[in-house]
Amino acid sequence: MMAGPTHHALARPEFDDGPKILIVVAPYYKDIADGLVAGAMAEIEAAGGSYEVTEMPGALELPTAIGIAARMGEYDGFVALGCVIRGETTHYDTVCNDSSRGLTLLGLQGLCIGNGILTVENYEQAAVRADPDGQNKGGGAAAAALHLVALSRRLGRKDKGLGFTADRLGEG
């Protein structure tokens, strides 16, 4: 049997001052979430960063939680982790699309976010992707956040990569 296609992974960014990352996870499928978080924590630690972990009920709450943390916390970047498995209704499409759209909009405002929300057809696909010794999608999401933090710092951002202020969000 032939091996599948491979992808290129960027070298881990290096930091003089390790970034502080908030991992926001929806542990709806607890064992899958635990694997994603383990991969993310290992990647952040390997880059010399620190992290906090907070849980939300589901994937739809992840963008809102990150938006709140960006306004009220002192984080350089964020990792969104969770798993959505296709069911019998169109709710799957809503959760996948809206959680991804929310994270994308926050990213376009300047937040450094790694999206590690798995969107899969079945539990087996999720297990392979969440396994830190397998596809390690949690580690990949953390790596994405770290690369965005590194870019933000390299470009000289003074606002810790948050990219927006309370008054730009209608609060000021």
Describe this entry's structure for a reader.
5-amino-6-(D-ribitylamino)uracil binds at residues 28, 59-61, 83-85, 115. One of its GO terms (biological process) is riboflavin biosynthetic process. It comes from Limimaricola hongkongensis DSM 17492. Its EC number is 2.5.1.78. Keywords: Riboflavin biosynthesis, Transferase. By secondary structure, the protein is α/β, with parallel strands linked by helices. The protein has one domain (20-156): Rossmann fold (3-Layer(aba) Sandwich). It has helices spanning 30-46, 62-72, 91-108, 123-130, 137-154; strands at residues 20-25, 50-55, 77-85, 113-120. A 4-stranded parallel β-sheet has the order 2-1-3-4, sandwiched between helices. α1 (30-46) runs parallel beside α4, α1 (30-46) packs parallel to α5 (137-154) and α2 (62-72) runs parallel beside α3. It is globular, with a radius of gyration of 16 Å.
What topology emerges from the helices and strands here?
Blueprint: E1 20-25, H1 30-46, E2 50-55, H2 62-72, E3 77-85, H3 91-108, E4 113-120, H4 123-130, H5 137-154
Parallel strand pairs: 1-2, 1-3, 3-4
Helix pairs in contact: 1-4, 1-5, 2-3
